[in-house]
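pinging the channel bc i need a second pair of eyes. not urgent but kinda urgent?? the chain im working w is below, pasted from the shared doc
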Amino acid sequence: MTYQIIRRFLLGLTALAFICLMATPVKAVLQEGEEVPNYVRSDITGGDFHGQDLHKSSIAGAVARDADFSNVDLHGTVLTLADLKGANLNGINLTDTLADRVNFQKTDLRNSILVNMIASGSSFAGATIEGADFTFAVLDSDDQTRLCKDAQGVNPTTGISTRDSLECRDEGTGVYKPPIPGS
């Protein structure tokens, strides 16, 4: 009985948070004294952020389709419920990000760093991942399996192979090969 009450409370709280995030979009503006811009619920479709340092900013609930985030530092960022479909994320640093329920469909994630990223409920369908480092990332098992089919290359920054970082099964052996940091 207590479990059901707690479960209903958490579901209600989640629904309330979702409604708040989906409210009217706001345009991101860097206010005086702020160190990083806030893109929460913003429509930044097609935006050019190439090479910027946006670490610890928030892009939660933002629509950033076809945006250019190549070589951007977004470590420690909140991306929850963001729509990045078709975005250029080549060389992006998404270390330690909360990226649950994010649309990464058809994104370019080549040479990206996604270490310790929480991406449960996210979709990576059609994403290009050559050289991406997913070490210790939390992914749905279906996504992990699909990503392993295309996993190739070695991340130029971390030196970790994409297959190893995804803990892909070796073809034919059925054995997991977990990533070994620093090797």
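so The two ends are 49 Å apart (CA to CA). and Residues 94 and 114 are 5 Å apart (CA to CA). — does that match what u expected or am i reading it wrong
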